[in-house]
């Protein structure tokens, strides 16, 4: 399978291929300075400078089983990773963006990171506790986790709105996998999409006027890779959906925040058979 790291231009719909590799890479983050993308692959983390794209390894110390739930602090100084090296299950760590020894954040596992608050103080993530999935937050400096919502079914993909007031997530708590949001300080959850598609990983745009997400065909179970999927844009004000791009992807395409700082573009990964 070949991985293609790409950028989508929102105004024109044009797709630019940044890098292609025979290595499985996933989940691009955009650095706040707009100069690089960060991806994971084979348990490690890589920086891809846009001026001269290549996979440059990031030193994550002892953490060498990183998954595709990672991101960058709003000020660009820190990298958050989800890694299972020490615990055997996904655990959240923070380290300098240039690399270095990671600092453990979550005491309980499994925990999968997905969002960093705009003020830089708080992380949002998915946890499984006593067999139940839920959306949690925790201070970057550590401490006790706060449960926002949990229950039967699945919860995933929490990402902050740019003003920090909402956390968007996906869940099948309403019977099918749709987009939801909940006040970041806690409160009642609101269902935002309601269609026959299987919708995952909402990422609010920097201006707050739209939400990018991954949409599977009806009847899809979970969020598998190597499927025909769509990247779609949801308008919270009108409730309308705009399909942007059909691609072969799924797991690994946009698991984590992937917007450019100016909101004009976003990054994603698509996949192709090696002989295609």
From TrEMBL:
Pfam families, alphabetized: PD40
UniProt superkingdom: Bacteria
Membrane-spanning residues: none
Family per record: Belongs to the TolB family.
Protein name according to UniProt: Transporter
Gene source species: Hoeflea ulvae
